[in-house]
Amino acid sequence: MPRGHFITFEGLDGSGKTTQIRRLANWLEKSGHPTVITRQPGGTATGDRIREILLDAKNAHLAPTTEMALMFADRAQAIEEVIHPGLDAGKVVLCDRYTDSSEAYQGGGRELGSETILAMHRLVCGNLQPDLTILLLPSFEASLVRARRRNSRDEARTGKNEGRFEAEQDAFFRRVWEKYREIAEREPQRVVRIEGDLSIEEVHEQVVEIVSERLLVSASEA
Known about the structure:
Blueprint: E1 5-10, H1 17-30, E2 35-39, H2 45-55, H3 64-88, E3 92-96, H4 99-109, H5 114-124, E4 132-137, H6 140-158, H7 170-186, E5 191-195, H8 200-221
Parallel strand pairs: 1-3, 1-4, 2-3, 4-5
Helix pairs in contact: 1-8, 2-3, 3-5, 4-5, 4-7
């Protein structure tokens, strides 16, 4: 059986990743491409427990290296339980965040540096790379407003405050933003940017076009 495709979505919280992943999964399934959706942190029983630690606002004083290590522990479990099995079964694996997030948030935002993150990726993840990464870059300000509004709404509904990252100052997110752009410039064959404050449908149309041209069409021609 041919190996499946591994597609990741990246961007600041509030950039619309989750919505676009769901829409792409629906389009892929209707087009005859079995799909698996997962997220990081989370996506496995172990990962969900790690996610609670990482996102809980009460854990405000996690050391940056602790945060990084937890992210990679979650990622290793996801690769073992979800990503490799999905690819081996010939499915399209859609992942909400992957190592680019660690490079942007811990490498850039926490200022641990890219090489530290990439070395961890080689060691812990066996250097498994996505076939395609879609980087959503609406305006910096719009992303932060949406993310903080969403977390306030979720806290009111669930009683849980998962806004540990959103509580950071704008300077932190500016470093994350710049690191994402640096990654995209460094790896243009893998990372495709969708920029600007576009509508959900406009972004979806671009996503479908990118996935079709970069992966599905090339695969059918192989």
